[in-house]
Structures are given as structure tokens and as C-alpha cells.
Amino acid sequence: MSDHAPAHTTSEWQPLELDALDGKSASPQSGGGFQAGMPHTAAPDVGLIRRMAQRARSTFEQETLQQQQAARDEGYAAGEKAGYEAGLARARQEAAEQAARQAEAARQALEQQAAQLAPLIENLQQSLACLDEQISDELAALAISVGQHLAHEAFRAHPEHIIDSVRSLLAADPPLIGRPRLYLNPDDLPRVEQAMGEQLTRLGWQCLPDASLSLGGCRAEADSGCHDASLKSRLEMLSRQLRHRGSADGSLHGKDEASGSRMVHRQSSEHVPPEQACTELAGDRA
Questions:
Q1: 20-40 in b/e burial notation, b at 16+ Cβ within 10 A?
Q2: Domain definitions of the chain by residue range
Q3: 3-state SS, residue 226
Q4: What is the pTM of this model?
Q5: Fewer Cβ in 10 A, N or C end of the chain?
Q6: In this predicted model, what pLDDT tens digit does every residue of 46-101 receive, in sequence order?
């Protein structure tokens, strides 16, 4: 039996500090040598350990660089997306603002043009109104001239039409009261007296010539008023109708409007019943 503790029989390798591996072997224990009974083991390969450490350091550095690059790429993508969205929103806002400015400028331009055109349109409307009135007057004058010519020709060709005119005039409403008088063209007077003289005389009508009346025209007067069926009065009424475009004259009533007569009513102090003459003349006409 030995007094010393038994030595380890297995060779267990313990890691050494890299700084201690500088080309030297493991330092001996106290006394300058290996422990008694401990087997001698081969020194580790320092170069291999260094290469492994460098490889590990290189791998770590590569992984770090990759992580940094990934972080940079992710940040760049996020920034690019945020910048794109911000730029798109800003571009849309600027486009909307520009469109609004253009619309406002166009509106102001239209208002300015409308303001410039307003006087021109007003002047044009006034010119058209004057032209319309002038044309209406010219058409009325032309119609009167043609009507007057046709009326003269018609009465010359058919002088017996004066009888119908007299009957229509004397039958017009309201009836004339007080000294009734019938004025005729001197050429029409003998014809009317021959056809209706006895009836007119019996009913108190007096037939008188009036050179101012044209052929076919007549005028009835009494103390109560006047019925004018002269050609001149008829043409004047036609002119008023043409100027007012067919509007009825408020002073015309009943048969007077159809016959073209003009009535001027006066107060009467005597009441001679000429209604019988109107009734008889209307009956003769029928």
C-alpha cells in the first residue's frame, strides 16, 4: 500500500485558457513537474482552436451583418411605403387644390364674360323689340293699304253692299235715341233712299250726304250717341288689332265689333222710339 492517494486512471481533458496556449506546453504542477501517477496527454492543437474561434467569430459577424442588413431592408421598405403613401396623399391634395383653383378661375372668367355680354344681349333685345314694333307697324300699314284698296274695289264692283252696311249699322246696340240721322257718301245716298227711303222716313230717320265718307261707308248719329261704320274707322280698328296682335278693344261691344262701328254715347233729353226701325230693318235684312 502506498501512502499517496490513488491517481486517476482515466484521461480527462480539461479546457485550457487560450492565452496560456502561446506555444508552450501545460505548466507543471508544484515542484516543476506533472503530478505523480498522472498519465501524460498530448497538448491540444492551438491552430485548430484558433481556426474554430475565427470561424465562430466570422459566423457571428456574418449573422450580425445579415441581421443588420435585414433590419435596414425592412426599415427601407417601411420608409418607402410610408413615403409613397405620404407622397400620394400630397399629390392628390395638390391635384384637388389645383382643380379647385382652375374651376374658380373658369367661373370668374365666365362671370366676367357674362358681365361683358349682358349689355350686348340687352341692346340686342331692345333692337329686336324695336324691329318687331317697326315690322308690326309696317305690316299694319301694308294691311290697311291693301284693305282700303280691296274695299274700294269691292264697293265699286258691288255698290249694293251699302244696303247691308246700313242695316247692320242701324241694328247695332245700343239703339240710337233722339233725332236719328244717317250720313252716306253722295254716290251711295240715292241707292239707299231708293231701297230703304220709305222705311227710314216712316221711322223718323233723316238721310244726309257726307263727302268725307268713302263709298260703302256710313255713319249714324243721334242725341244718345254715334255708330260709325265708315271705311276709315274700320281700317283704324284693323290697325289697332294688328298692332296689339288681335287683342280686342275694350270700347267695342256686341255687333259693333263685327261691323267695325265706333260708338260715342251722349245723354238724351227726348225718347223717340227708333227701336221699331231697328227691328223692321233687321227683319227686312233677314
A1: ebeeeeeeeeeeeeeeeeeee
A2: 45-157, 159-285
A3: strand
A4: 0.39
A5: N
A6: 888 888 888 888 888 888 888 888 888 888 888 888 888 888 898 999 999 999 99
Cross-strand bridge partners of residue 29: 33
CB 179 within 8 A of CB 222: yes
The cell for 59 is: 459566423
**How crowded is residue 76: how many other Cβ atoms within 10 Å of its Cβ?**
10
Dihedral through CA 123, CA 124, CA 129, CA 133, nearest 10? 100
Distance from C-alpha of 261 to C-alpha of 172, rounded to nearest angstrom: 9
For residue 165, which of 269, 285, 33, 79 has the smallest C-alpha distance? 285
**Residue the block writes with cell 263727302:** 211
Q: Which of 199, 251, 201 is nearest to 228 (CA)?
A: 251
Helix ranges, the chain (H): 46-157, 161-170, 189-202, 231-243, 254-259, 275-285
Residue range 179-191, pLDDT digits in tens: 999 999 999 999 9
